[in-house]
Task: structure prediction
Amino acid sequence: MFKIHFKLILISSVYWAAYAQASEDISISAVNLHTRVLAASCAACHGTLGRAVTGSSLERNAVLAGRDPEDFTKKMFGFKDGSRRGTVMHHHAKGLTEAEIKQLALFFSQQKSAEIDPLNPQTLNTHHE
Amino acid sequence: MNKSHFNRRDFIKAAGVIGGLSFSCAVFSMANKPPMGRVVIIGGGYAGTTAAKYIRLWSLGAVEVIVIEKSSQFVSCPMSNLVLGGTRTIHDLTFSYDLVKKNHGVKWVEDEVISINTEVKKVMMKRGEISYDRLIVAPGVDFNYEVLPELKTTEAQQKIPHAWKAGWQTVNLRKQLEAMPDGGVFVMTIPKAPYRCPPGPYERACQVASYFKTNKPSSKVIVLDANAEVISKKGLFLKAWAELYPSIVDYRPDSPIKSVDVASKTISTDFEKIKAHVLNVIPPQTAGKPAKMANLLEPDYPWCEVDFLTYESKTVPYVHIVGDSVASGLPKSAHIATSQARVCASAIVELMKGQSPDPAPVFANTCYSYVDDKQAMHVANVFRYDAPKKIMVPAEGGGVSAKPSQEEGVYAKAWAQNIWADVLT
Result:
Protein backbone atom coordinates (compact mmCIF):
# COMPACT_ATOMS: atom_id res chain seq x y z
CA MET A 1 0.00 0.00 0.00
CA PHE A 2 2.75 2.43 1.00
CA LYS A 3 4.52 1.83 -2.31
CA ILE A 4 1.42 2.70 -4.25
CA HIS A 5 0.92 5.91 -2.30
CA PHE A 6 4.51 6.89 -2.76
CA LYS A 7 4.32 6.36 -6.50
CA LEU A 8 1.14 8.29 -6.71
CA ILE A 9 2.53 11.28 -4.90
CA LEU A 10 5.65 11.17 -7.05
CA ILE A 11 3.66 11.00 -10.25
CA SER A 12 1.45 13.78 -9.00
CA SER A 13 4.25 16.20 -8.29
CA VAL A 14 5.92 15.62 -11.65
CA TYR A 15 2.54 16.01 -13.26
CA TRP A 16 1.76 19.28 -11.48
CA ALA A 17 5.09 20.82 -12.36
CA ALA A 18 4.59 19.94 -16.03
CA TYR A 19 1.02 21.20 -15.96
CA ALA A 20 1.97 24.54 -14.45
CA GLN A 21 4.66 24.91 -17.13
CA ALA A 22 2.25 24.07 -19.95
CA SER A 23 -0.43 26.34 -18.54
CA GLU A 24 2.04 29.19 -18.30
CA ASP A 25 2.90 28.83 -21.98
CA ILE A 26 -0.66 29.06 -23.12
CA SER A 27 -2.34 31.33 -20.61
CA ILE A 28 0.04 34.26 -21.32
CA SER A 29 -0.06 36.29 -18.18
CA ALA A 30 0.23 39.52 -20.18
CA VAL A 31 -3.14 38.89 -21.82
CA ASN A 32 -5.77 40.87 -20.04
CA LEU A 33 -8.77 39.23 -18.44
CA HIS A 34 -11.12 40.67 -21.03
CA THR A 35 -9.28 39.13 -23.96
CA ARG A 36 -8.73 35.70 -22.41
CA VAL A 37 -12.47 35.24 -21.91
CA LEU A 38 -13.41 36.74 -25.26
CA ALA A 39 -10.84 34.64 -27.13
CA ALA A 40 -12.03 31.51 -25.34
CA SER A 41 -15.56 32.30 -26.45
CA CYS A 42 -14.41 31.67 -30.06
CA ALA A 43 -13.53 28.06 -29.13
CA ALA A 44 -16.98 26.67 -30.02
CA CYS A 45 -16.02 26.92 -33.71
CA HIS A 46 -12.28 27.63 -33.60
CA GLY A 47 -11.07 25.29 -30.84
CA THR A 48 -9.31 25.95 -27.54
CA LEU A 49 -6.72 28.73 -28.13
CA GLY A 50 -7.71 28.83 -31.80
CA ARG A 51 -6.59 25.24 -32.36
CA ALA A 52 -9.48 23.97 -34.45
CA VAL A 53 -10.08 20.24 -34.71
CA THR A 54 -7.90 18.77 -37.46
CA GLY A 55 -9.84 17.40 -40.39
CA SER A 56 -13.03 19.26 -39.49
CA SER A 57 -14.45 20.60 -42.72
CA LEU A 58 -13.70 24.15 -41.70
CA GLU A 59 -10.14 23.57 -40.74
CA ARG A 60 -8.51 25.95 -43.20
CA ASN A 61 -10.60 28.91 -42.07
CA ALA A 62 -11.01 27.85 -38.50
CA VAL A 63 -7.43 27.56 -37.29
CA LEU A 64 -6.62 30.85 -35.57
CA ALA A 65 -3.59 29.68 -33.58
CA GLY A 66 -0.43 31.16 -35.06
CA ARG A 67 -2.37 33.28 -37.57
CA ASP A 68 -0.64 36.41 -38.89
CA PRO A 69 -2.17 39.24 -36.81
CA GLU A 70 -2.40 41.58 -39.81
CA ASP A 71 -4.30 38.98 -41.83
CA PHE A 72 -6.65 38.37 -38.89
CA THR A 73 -7.28 42.09 -38.36
CA LYS A 74 -7.80 42.78 -42.07
CA LYS A 75 -10.37 40.00 -42.40
CA MET A 76 -12.23 40.91 -39.21
CA PHE A 77 -12.33 44.60 -40.12
CA GLY A 78 -13.68 43.54 -43.50
CA PHE A 79 -16.46 41.50 -41.86
CA LYS A 80 -17.14 44.42 -39.53
CA ASP A 81 -17.50 47.13 -42.20
CA GLY A 82 -19.29 44.80 -44.61
CA SER A 83 -16.60 44.89 -47.32
CA ARG A 84 -15.93 41.18 -46.81
CA ARG A 85 -18.74 38.70 -47.32
CA GLY A 86 -19.24 36.34 -44.42
CA THR A 87 -21.49 33.38 -43.71
CA VAL A 88 -21.54 33.92 -39.96
CA MET A 89 -18.46 35.99 -39.06
CA HIS A 90 -20.01 39.36 -39.93
CA HIS A 91 -22.53 38.77 -37.13
CA HIS A 92 -19.64 38.47 -34.69
CA ALA A 93 -17.22 41.07 -36.08
CA LYS A 94 -19.82 43.85 -36.03
CA GLY A 95 -20.35 43.27 -32.31
CA LEU A 96 -16.68 43.69 -31.42
CA THR A 97 -14.72 46.94 -31.01
CA GLU A 98 -11.63 47.60 -33.12
CA ALA A 99 -9.51 47.36 -29.97
CA GLU A 100 -10.99 43.94 -29.18
CA ILE A 101 -10.25 42.69 -32.71
CA LYS A 102 -6.63 43.87 -32.42
CA GLN A 103 -6.27 42.17 -29.02
CA LEU A 104 -7.72 38.93 -30.42
CA ALA A 105 -5.33 39.13 -33.39
CA LEU A 106 -2.38 39.45 -31.03
CA PHE A 107 -3.64 36.70 -28.73
CA PHE A 108 -4.20 34.13 -31.48
CA SER A 109 -0.93 34.99 -33.26
CA GLN A 110 0.91 34.05 -30.06
CA GLN A 111 -0.62 30.57 -29.82
CA LYS A 112 1.24 27.58 -31.21
CA SER A 113 -0.80 25.59 -33.69
CA ALA A 114 -1.29 21.88 -32.97
CA GLU A 115 -2.93 18.78 -34.36
CA ILE A 116 -6.23 18.35 -32.55
CA ASP A 117 -7.98 15.04 -33.09
CA PRO A 118 -11.77 14.95 -33.11
CA LEU A 119 -13.11 13.36 -29.94
CA ASN A 120 -13.96 9.69 -30.22
CA PRO A 121 -17.56 9.00 -29.26
CA GLN A 122 -18.50 5.90 -27.29
CA THR A 123 -21.47 3.62 -26.73
CA LEU A 124 -24.02 5.05 -24.31
CA ASN A 125 -24.17 3.02 -21.09
CA THR A 126 -27.40 1.20 -20.36
CA HIS A 127 -27.61 2.77 -16.87
CA HIS A 128 -27.54 6.34 -18.23
CA GLU A 129 -30.81 8.26 -17.97
CA MET B 1 -17.26 18.52 13.83
CA ASN B 2 -14.90 19.24 11.00
CA LYS B 3 -12.50 16.79 9.49
CA SER B 4 -9.33 18.84 9.66
CA HIS B 5 -7.51 15.96 11.33
CA PHE B 6 -7.96 14.00 8.15
CA ASN B 7 -4.55 13.77 6.46
CA ARG B 8 -3.63 13.07 2.89
CA ARG B 9 -2.93 9.38 3.39
CA ASP B 10 -6.26 8.81 5.12
CA PHE B 11 -7.89 10.69 2.35
CA ILE B 12 -6.35 8.48 -0.32
CA LYS B 13 -7.42 5.38 1.64
CA ALA B 14 -10.95 6.63 2.02
CA ALA B 15 -11.34 7.85 -1.48
CA GLY B 16 -10.27 4.81 -3.46
CA VAL B 17 -8.08 6.54 -5.98
CA ILE B 18 -8.33 5.59 -9.62
CA GLY B 19 -5.48 6.89 -11.74
CA GLY B 20 -4.55 9.40 -9.07
CA LEU B 21 -7.11 11.96 -10.07
CA SER B 22 -10.59 10.59 -9.94
CA PHE B 23 -12.56 9.26 -7.04
CA SER B 24 -15.32 6.73 -6.78
CA CYS B 25 -16.48 7.74 -3.32
CA ALA B 26 -15.51 10.77 -1.44
CA VAL B 27 -14.76 12.33 1.88
CA PHE B 28 -12.83 15.46 1.00
CA SER B 29 -11.43 17.52 3.83
CA MET B 30 -10.04 21.02 3.69
CA ALA B 31 -6.79 19.86 5.33
CA ASN B 32 -4.87 19.59 2.07
CA LYS B 33 -6.30 22.45 0.14
CA PRO B 34 -3.84 23.97 -2.32
CA PRO B 35 -2.63 27.55 -1.93
CA MET B 36 -5.51 29.21 -3.75
CA GLY B 37 -8.36 27.10 -2.42
CA ARG B 38 -10.97 24.69 -3.64
CA VAL B 39 -13.84 25.10 -6.08
CA VAL B 40 -16.55 22.44 -6.13
CA ILE B 41 -18.68 22.26 -9.27
CA ILE B 42 -22.06 20.53 -9.33
CA GLY B 43 -22.82 19.29 -12.83
CA GLY B 44 -20.62 18.03 -15.68
CA GLY B 45 -22.54 19.42 -18.64
CA TYR B 46 -21.33 22.10 -21.05
CA ALA B 47 -21.22 24.79 -18.32
CA GLY B 48 -19.79 22.83 -15.39
CA THR B 49 -17.09 20.99 -17.35
CA THR B 50 -15.97 24.20 -19.08
CA ALA B 51 -15.73 26.03 -15.76
CA ALA B 52 -13.62 23.17 -14.36
CA LYS B 53 -11.18 23.19 -17.27
CA TYR B 54 -10.71 26.95 -17.42
CA ILE B 55 -10.27 27.44 -13.66
CA ARG B 56 -7.47 24.90 -13.80
CA LEU B 57 -5.92 26.58 -16.87
CA TRP B 58 -6.17 30.17 -15.70
CA SER B 59 -5.08 29.44 -12.12
CA LEU B 60 -2.05 27.55 -13.52
CA GLY B 61 -3.26 24.56 -11.55
CA ALA B 62 -3.28 26.44 -8.24
CA VAL B 63 -7.02 26.10 -7.60
CA GLU B 64 -8.25 22.62 -6.76
CA VAL B 65 -11.36 21.75 -8.78
CA ILE B 66 -13.74 18.92 -7.92
CA VAL B 67 -16.69 18.17 -10.19
CA ILE B 68 -19.69 16.22 -8.87
CA GLU B 69 -21.63 14.55 -11.69
CA LYS B 70 -24.07 11.67 -11.41
CA SER B 71 -23.66 10.38 -14.98
CA SER B 72 -20.54 8.54 -16.08
CA GLN B 73 -20.75 9.90 -19.64
CA PHE B 74 -21.30 13.23 -21.38
CA VAL B 75 -24.20 13.14 -23.85
CA SER B 76 -24.61 16.21 -26.06
CA CYS B 77 -28.02 17.84 -26.36
CA PRO B 78 -26.86 19.86 -29.39
CA MET B 79 -27.13 17.54 -32.45
CA SER B 80 -29.52 15.18 -30.60
CA ASN B 81 -32.48 16.21 -32.78
CA LEU B 82 -30.54 14.56 -35.62
CA VAL B 83 -31.05 11.24 -33.83
CA LEU B 84 -34.79 11.78 -34.38
CA GLY B 85 -34.17 12.64 -38.03
CA GLY B 86 -32.11 9.47 -38.35
CA THR B 87 -28.76 10.91 -39.50
CA ARG B 88 -26.98 10.39 -36.16
CA THR B 89 -27.19 7.84 -33.37
CA ILE B 90 -27.01 8.69 -29.66
CA HIS B 91 -23.66 6.90 -29.60
CA ASP B 92 -22.22 9.55 -31.96
CA LEU B 93 -22.99 12.15 -29.26
CA THR B 94 -21.71 10.27 -26.20
CA PHE B 95 -18.25 10.97 -24.78
CA SER B 96 -15.99 10.07 -21.88
CA TYR B 97 -14.84 12.61 -19.29
CA ASP B 98 -11.40 10.95 -19.08
CA LEU B 99 -9.44 13.45 -21.19
CA VAL B 100 -10.61 16.63 -19.48
CA LYS B 101 -9.93 15.03 -16.09
CA LYS B 102 -6.47 13.83 -17.10
CA ASN B 103 -5.34 16.85 -19.13
CA HIS B 104 -6.23 19.41 -16.48
CA GLY B 105 -6.08 17.55 -13.19
CA VAL B 106 -9.78 18.01 -12.55
CA LYS B 107 -10.94 15.80 -9.68
CA TRP B 108 -14.17 14.00 -10.35
CA VAL B 109 -16.80 12.42 -8.14
CA GLU B 110 -19.53 10.30 -9.71
CA ASP B 111 -22.30 10.83 -7.20
CA GLU B 112 -25.58 12.60 -6.67
CA VAL B 113 -25.97 15.72 -4.54
CA ILE B 114 -28.62 15.35 -1.84
CA SER B 115 -28.22 18.62 0.06
CA ILE B 116 -26.13 21.77 0.22
CA ASN B 117 -25.30 23.73 3.37
CA THR B 118 -24.19 27.18 2.22
CA GLU B 119 -23.68 28.36 5.84
CA VAL B 120 -20.82 25.92 6.44
CA LYS B 121 -19.95 25.69 2.70
CA LYS B 122 -20.46 21.97 2.30
CA VAL B 123 -22.09 19.68 -0.28
CA MET B 124 -23.62 16.39 0.85
CA MET B 125 -23.85 13.51 -1.61
CA LYS B 126 -25.23 9.97 -1.41
CA ARG B 127 -21.77 8.59 -0.67
CA GLY B 128 -19.85 11.42 0.97
CA GLU B 129 -19.48 15.13 1.52
CA ILE B 130 -17.18 17.89 0.27
CA SER B 131 -16.31 21.34 1.64
CA TYR B 132 -15.70 24.24 -0.71
CA ASP B 133 -14.27 27.75 -0.76
CA ARG B 134 -16.48 28.56 -3.72
CA LEU B 135 -19.26 26.48 -5.23
CA ILE B 136 -20.39 26.52 -8.85
CA VAL B 137 -23.89 25.17 -9.45
CA ALA B 138 -24.34 24.07 -13.07
CA PRO B 139 -27.24 21.62 -13.01
CA GLY B 140 -28.97 22.54 -16.28
CA VAL B 141 -32.74 22.52 -16.20
CA ASP B 142 -35.25 20.57 -14.16
CA PHE B 143 -38.70 19.67 -15.51
CA ASN B 144 -41.70 21.17 -13.76
CA TYR B 145 -44.30 18.41 -13.54
CA GLU B 146 -46.40 20.33 -10.97
CA VAL B 147 -48.42 21.65 -13.90
CA LEU B 148 -48.58 18.23 -15.61
CA PRO B 149 -48.80 15.73 -12.72
CA GLU B 150 -49.99 12.98 -15.06
CA LEU B 151 -46.47 12.88 -16.57
CA LYS B 152 -44.61 12.69 -13.27
CA THR B 153 -43.94 8.95 -13.27
CA THR B 154 -41.14 7.18 -15.11
CA GLU B 155 -43.77 4.94 -16.76
CA ALA B 156 -45.62 7.96 -18.17
CA GLN B 157 -42.35 9.46 -19.40
CA GLN B 158 -41.51 6.18 -21.13
CA LYS B 159 -44.80 6.29 -22.99
CA ILE B 160 -44.62 10.04 -23.66
CA PRO B 161 -40.92 10.94 -23.76
CA HIS B 162 -39.62 14.49 -23.31
CA ALA B 163 -36.32 13.71 -25.07
CA TRP B 164 -35.18 17.15 -23.85
CA LYS B 165 -32.12 15.80 -22.07
CA ALA B 166 -30.17 13.70 -24.55
CA GLY B 167 -29.88 10.01 -23.69
CA TRP B 168 -32.19 7.01 -23.76
CA GLN B 169 -35.19 9.35 -23.84
CA THR B 170 -33.98 10.48 -27.29
CA VAL B 171 -33.59 6.86 -28.42
CA ASN B 172 -37.05 6.03 -27.06
CA LEU B 173 -38.66 8.81 -29.12
CA ARG B 174 -36.78 7.75 -32.25
CA LYS B 175 -37.94 4.13 -31.80
CA GLN B 176 -41.55 5.27 -31.43
CA LEU B 177 -41.24 7.29 -34.65
CA GLU B 178 -39.76 4.25 -36.43
CA ALA B 179 -42.61 2.04 -35.21
CA MET B 180 -45.32 4.53 -36.21
CA PRO B 181 -47.29 3.56 -39.33
CA ASP B 182 -47.33 5.86 -42.38
CA GLY B 183 -50.27 8.23 -42.09
CA GLY B 184 -49.70 8.57 -38.34
CA VAL B 185 -49.74 11.77 -36.30
CA PHE B 186 -46.76 12.99 -34.27
CA VAL B 187 -47.69 15.71 -31.78
CA MET B 188 -45.08 17.76 -29.94
CA THR B 189 -45.65 20.51 -27.40
CA ILE B 190 -43.47 23.51 -26.59
CA PRO B 191 -43.58 25.16 -23.14
CA LYS B 192 -43.65 28.91 -22.54
CA ALA B 193 -40.20 30.49 -22.80
CA PRO B 194 -37.70 30.52 -21.21
CA TYR B 195 -36.68 26.91 -21.72
CA ARG B 196 -33.48 25.12 -22.76
CA CYS B 197 -32.48 25.74 -26.41
CA PRO B 198 -34.97 28.26 -27.88
CA PRO B 199 -34.80 27.01 -31.52
CA GLY B 200 -34.57 23.34 -30.45
CA PRO B 201 -38.27 22.46 -30.67
CA TYR B 202 -38.59 24.00 -34.14
CA GLU B 203 -35.51 22.14 -35.32
CA ARG B 204 -37.08 18.98 -33.89
CA ALA B 205 -40.23 19.55 -35.96
CA CYS B 206 -37.97 19.83 -39.06
CA GLN B 207 -36.04 16.67 -38.22
CA VAL B 208 -39.12 14.53 -37.64
CA ALA B 209 -40.72 15.97 -40.79
CA SER B 210 -37.55 15.21 -42.76
CA TYR B 211 -37.72 11.58 -41.60
CA PHE B 212 -41.43 11.38 -42.48
CA LYS B 213 -40.95 12.99 -45.90
CA THR B 214 -38.59 10.20 -46.98
CA ASN B 215 -40.06 7.28 -45.06
CA LYS B 216 -43.70 7.99 -44.12
CA PRO B 217 -44.89 10.77 -46.44
CA SER B 218 -48.56 10.65 -45.41
CA SER B 219 -47.73 11.37 -41.76
CA LYS B 220 -48.18 14.65 -39.89
CA VAL B 221 -46.17 16.72 -37.42
CA ILE B 222 -48.46 18.86 -35.23
CA VAL B 223 -46.61 21.45 -33.15
CA LEU B 224 -48.52 22.91 -30.20
CA ASP B 225 -46.61 25.99 -29.04
CA ALA B 226 -47.52 27.67 -25.74
CA ASN B 227 -45.81 30.80 -27.08
CA ALA B 228 -47.56 33.36 -29.27
CA GLU B 229 -45.11 32.73 -32.11
CA VAL B 230 -41.93 30.91 -33.11
CA ILE B 231 -39.43 32.40 -30.64
CA SER B 232 -36.16 31.79 -32.50
CA LYS B 233 -35.19 32.06 -36.20
CA LYS B 234 -38.89 32.64 -36.84
CA GLY B 235 -38.84 33.62 -40.52
CA LEU B 236 -36.40 30.87 -41.38
CA PHE B 237 -38.39 28.11 -39.69
CA LEU B 238 -41.73 29.25 -41.14
CA LYS B 239 -40.15 29.29 -44.59
CA ALA B 240 -38.53 25.87 -44.11
CA TRP B 241 -41.86 24.33 -43.08
CA ALA B 242 -43.71 25.96 -45.97
CA GLU B 243 -41.12 25.02 -48.58
CA LEU B 244 -39.79 21.67 -47.40
CA TYR B 245 -42.73 20.16 -45.51
CA PRO B 246 -45.94 21.88 -46.67
CA SER B 247 -48.17 18.83 -46.19
CA ILE B 248 -46.42 17.54 -43.09
CA VAL B 249 -45.81 20.34 -40.53
CA ASP B 250 -48.86 21.93 -38.92
CA TYR B 251 -47.69 24.68 -36.54
CA ARG B 252 -50.19 26.05 -33.99
CA PRO B 253 -49.07 29.01 -31.87
CA ASP B 254 -50.79 30.12 -28.64
CA SER B 255 -51.66 26.52 -27.81
CA PRO B 256 -50.67 25.80 -24.22
CA ILE B 257 -51.63 22.29 -23.14
CA LYS B 258 -54.15 21.76 -20.35
CA SER B 259 -53.84 18.04 -19.74
CA VAL B 260 -52.59 14.76 -21.14
CA ASP B 261 -54.34 11.41 -21.19
CA VAL B 262 -51.34 9.14 -20.97
CA ALA B 263 -53.04 5.85 -21.85
CA SER B 264 -54.56 7.12 -25.11
CA LYS B 265 -51.82 9.69 -25.90
CA THR B 266 -54.47 12.37 -26.17
CA ILE B 267 -53.63 15.99 -25.50
CA SER B 268 -56.07 18.76 -24.55
CA THR B 269 -55.70 22.49 -25.14
CA ASP B 270 -58.30 25.22 -24.55
CA PHE B 271 -59.62 24.64 -28.05
CA GLU B 272 -59.22 21.01 -28.95
CA LYS B 273 -58.33 17.40 -28.16
CA ILE B 274 -55.77 15.67 -30.34
CA LYS B 275 -54.99 11.98 -30.30
CA ALA B 276 -51.40 11.23 -31.27
CA HIS B 277 -49.69 8.08 -32.47
CA VAL B 278 -46.47 9.45 -31.02
CA LEU B 279 -46.58 12.20 -28.41
CA ASN B 280 -43.62 14.32 -27.26
CA VAL B 281 -44.30 16.73 -24.42
CA ILE B 282 -41.42 19.10 -23.74
CA PRO B 283 -42.28 20.04 -20.15
CA PRO B 284 -42.06 23.53 -18.62
CA GLN B 285 -38.65 24.07 -17.04
CA THR B 286 -36.97 25.53 -13.98
CA ALA B 287 -33.44 25.79 -12.64
CA GLY B 288 -31.98 22.38 -11.79
CA LYS B 289 -32.50 20.60 -8.46
CA PRO B 290 -29.14 21.50 -6.84
CA ALA B 291 -29.99 25.19 -7.37
CA LYS B 292 -33.17 24.56 -5.38
CA MET B 293 -31.23 22.77 -2.65
CA ALA B 294 -29.02 25.83 -2.21
CA ASN B 295 -32.04 28.19 -2.21
CA LEU B 296 -30.77 30.07 -5.24
CA LEU B 297 -34.12 30.54 -7.01
CA GLU B 298 -36.14 33.73 -7.03
CA PRO B 299 -39.32 33.59 -4.92
CA ASP B 300 -41.66 34.01 -7.89
CA TYR B 301 -39.41 33.05 -10.80
CA PRO B 302 -37.85 29.59 -11.13
CA TRP B 303 -34.36 30.74 -12.21
CA CYS B 304 -31.31 32.13 -10.38
CA GLU B 305 -30.32 35.82 -10.33
CA VAL B 306 -26.56 36.37 -10.64
CA ASP B 307 -23.99 39.13 -10.83
CA PHE B 308 -22.96 38.95 -14.51
CA LEU B 309 -19.34 39.90 -13.71
CA THR B 310 -18.78 36.81 -11.57
CA TYR B 311 -21.95 34.67 -11.89
CA GLU B 312 -22.10 34.74 -8.09
CA SER B 313 -25.62 34.34 -6.72
CA LYS B 314 -27.34 37.59 -5.79
CA THR B 315 -28.69 35.91 -2.67
CA VAL B 316 -26.12 33.36 -1.46
CA PRO B 317 -22.43 34.37 -1.15
CA TYR B 318 -19.62 32.12 -2.46
CA VAL B 319 -22.10 30.25 -4.66
CA HIS B 320 -21.97 30.82 -8.43
CA ILE B 321 -24.46 29.63 -11.04
CA VAL B 322 -23.69 29.04 -14.73
CA GLY B 323 -25.60 27.62 -17.67
CA ASP B 324 -29.31 27.08 -18.17
CA SER B 325 -30.26 27.76 -14.52
CA VAL B 326 -29.25 31.44 -14.73
CA ALA B 327 -32.03 34.05 -14.95
CA SER B 328 -31.04 36.26 -17.89
CA GLY B 329 -32.10 37.49 -21.28
CA LEU B 330 -29.43 35.23 -22.77
CA PRO B 331 -30.57 32.20 -24.76
CA LYS B 332 -30.17 28.93 -22.86
CA SER B 333 -27.72 27.46 -25.39
CA ALA B 334 -24.65 25.27 -25.02
CA HIS B 335 -22.39 28.04 -26.37
CA ILE B 336 -23.81 30.56 -23.86
CA ALA B 337 -23.36 27.98 -21.08
CA THR B 338 -19.66 27.69 -21.95
CA SER B 339 -19.28 31.47 -22.30
CA GLN B 340 -20.85 32.10 -18.88
CA ALA B 341 -18.66 29.36 -17.42
CA ARG B 342 -15.50 31.09 -18.67
CA VAL B 343 -16.50 34.50 -17.31
CA CYS B 344 -17.20 32.79 -13.99
CA ALA B 345 -13.95 30.79 -14.10
CA SER B 346 -11.88 33.88 -14.88
CA ALA B 347 -13.58 35.89 -12.11
CA ILE B 348 -13.17 33.14 -9.50
CA VAL B 349 -9.45 32.83 -10.24
CA GLU B 350 -9.05 36.61 -9.82
CA LEU B 351 -11.17 36.71 -6.65
CA MET B 352 -9.13 33.89 -5.15
CA LYS B 353 -5.97 35.87 -5.95
CA GLY B 354 -7.51 38.87 -4.17
CA GLN B 355 -7.88 40.77 -7.45
CA SER B 356 -10.80 42.22 -9.39
CA PRO B 357 -12.58 40.48 -12.27
CA ASP B 358 -13.05 42.03 -15.73
CA PRO B 359 -15.53 44.90 -15.23
CA ALA B 360 -17.06 44.53 -18.71
CA PRO B 361 -17.07 40.96 -20.07
CA VAL B 362 -17.95 40.26 -23.70
CA PHE B 363 -18.68 36.89 -25.30
CA ALA B 364 -20.27 35.30 -28.33
CA ASN B 365 -23.08 32.90 -29.07
CA THR B 366 -23.45 30.83 -32.23
CA CYS B 367 -26.28 28.37 -32.55
CA TYR B 368 -27.05 26.21 -35.57
CA SER B 369 -30.28 24.42 -36.43
CA TYR B 370 -30.67 21.75 -39.11
CA VAL B 371 -33.79 22.01 -41.27
CA ASP B 372 -33.22 18.61 -42.94
CA ASP B 373 -30.46 16.01 -43.13
CA LYS B 374 -27.90 18.43 -44.65
CA GLN B 375 -28.90 22.08 -44.45
CA ALA B 376 -28.48 24.27 -41.40
CA MET B 377 -28.84 27.93 -40.42
CA HIS B 378 -27.43 30.04 -37.60
CA VAL B 379 -28.24 32.74 -35.13
CA ALA B 380 -25.12 34.54 -33.94
CA ASN B 381 -24.59 37.41 -31.52
CA VAL B 382 -21.95 39.07 -29.43
CA PHE B 383 -23.18 39.92 -25.92
CA ARG B 384 -21.69 42.79 -23.89
CA TYR B 385 -22.01 43.74 -20.24
CA ASP B 386 -24.17 46.83 -19.83
CA ALA B 387 -22.80 48.55 -16.72
CA PRO B 388 -25.79 50.80 -15.90
CA LYS B 389 -28.29 47.95 -16.31
CA LYS B 390 -25.89 45.32 -14.88
CA ILE B 391 -26.96 42.71 -17.43
CA MET B 392 -25.60 41.14 -20.62
CA VAL B 393 -27.15 42.72 -23.73
CA PRO B 394 -26.84 41.82 -27.43
CA ALA B 395 -24.27 43.94 -29.25
CA GLU B 396 -25.13 45.49 -32.59
CA GLY B 397 -24.69 43.43 -35.73
CA GLY B 398 -25.93 40.00 -34.65
CA GLY B 399 -28.45 38.06 -36.70
CA VAL B 400 -29.51 34.95 -38.53
CA SER B 401 -28.60 33.26 -41.84
CA ALA B 402 -30.16 34.61 -45.00
CA LYS B 403 -31.30 31.03 -45.71
CA PRO B 404 -30.43 27.49 -44.65
CA SER B 405 -27.62 25.93 -46.69
CA GLN B 406 -25.48 22.83 -47.00
CA GLU B 407 -22.44 25.05 -46.38
CA GLU B 408 -23.83 25.88 -42.95
CA GLY B 409 -24.66 22.22 -42.40
CA VAL B 410 -20.92 21.66 -42.66
CA TYR B 411 -20.27 24.61 -40.31
CA ALA B 412 -22.72 23.19 -37.78
CA LYS B 413 -20.88 19.87 -37.78
CA ALA B 414 -17.55 21.67 -37.25
CA TRP B 415 -19.13 23.70 -34.43
CA ALA B 416 -20.05 20.45 -32.67
CA GLN B 417 -16.60 18.90 -33.15
CA ASN B 418 -14.85 22.00 -31.84
CA ILE B 419 -17.09 22.68 -28.85
CA TRP B 420 -16.86 19.01 -27.80
CA ALA B 421 -13.06 19.14 -28.07
CA ASP B 422 -12.96 22.43 -26.14
CA VAL B 423 -15.19 21.23 -23.31
CA LEU B 424 -13.96 17.65 -22.99
CA THR B 425 -10.17 17.76 -23.59
